[in-house]
């Protein structure tokens, strides 16, 4: 246990240097992070600029597109609604899958949808096309990471409550944690990158969606990670694509939120290297 605490403190001390090193190496143009160890102290760091060629520096309060981390907020809402009896996670829908199978990517729905490419459809028609996506396998048989499943889940939560997903996230995520966000985009600056929702499907729907579209700060993501109900973060969820990442190690008592301005092919490698110890990436 002593070794874990020392490692956590050393990692926190090296966080700013590690982010600056990531900027120097061209892994990202700007980044912000929040980290805590077993003692619960939150350490914040930032490096780089908000957009290429823009002299405005990234700060701990700079927001970023959270991409698939939006799913975590949708999952929290689902679990909280189940706790109060508003939904039954194990009751099959009319299509045969359950809300729990949507949460665990075992609904049988496809990974994505071509609805965002359909310029002939209005946003509401695009949403309906996503909701009507055919099953590729029977519910419960295959694990298939699915944006479609989380769009369907968000719609199900709205139908069950009569509230918009943005209102549900505020009620069950941001307000209980005493936060100003995350919020669905687009959002005003300062924002890492453009401030426009990066996910094509979420952007084309022009409404809050369960799989992507939230913007937040590293500290907000960190607070969410620390407060996640048991079972919300499914096995395999961890480093996510889209420039935003959340790493939890319950055994070590650590939580790291990292937001950047880049898609995360390099972010995963950087984050895993950072998590190995205070020497940072190599």
SSE succession: HEEEHHHHHEHEHEEH
Largest sheet: 4 strands, antiparallel
Q: Order of strands in the sheet with the most strands?
A: 2-1-7-6
SS-based class: alpha+beta
Nearest-integer average pLDDT? 86
User: What would you report as the Rg, rounded to the nearest angstrom?
Assistant: 19 Å
Estimate percent helicity: 25-40%
| Unreliable residue runs | 1-5, 234-239, 276-282
Q: State the total count of DSSP E strands.
A: 7
Backbone shape:
globular
- The N- and C-terminal alpha carbons lie at a distance of 26 Å
- The proportion of strand residues reads 5-15%
* Count of helical stretches: 9
Brief descriptors of the model:
282 residues; alpha+beta; 4-stranded antiparallel beta sheet; 3-stranded antiparallel beta sheet; 7 strands; 37% helix; disordered C terminus
Structure description:
The chain is an alpha+beta fold and 282 residues long. Helix content is 37%, strand content 12%. The chain has 9 helices and 7 strands, in the order αβββαααααβαβαββα. It has a 4-stranded antiparallel sheet with strand order 2-1-7-6, with helices on both faces. The chain has a 3-stranded antiparallel sheet with strand order 3-5-4. A hairpin with a 5-residue loop joins β1 and β2. The protein is globular. It starts with a helix and ends in a 6-residue tail after the last helix. 45% of the residues are buried. Residues 1-5, 234-239 and 276-282 have low confidence and may be disordered.
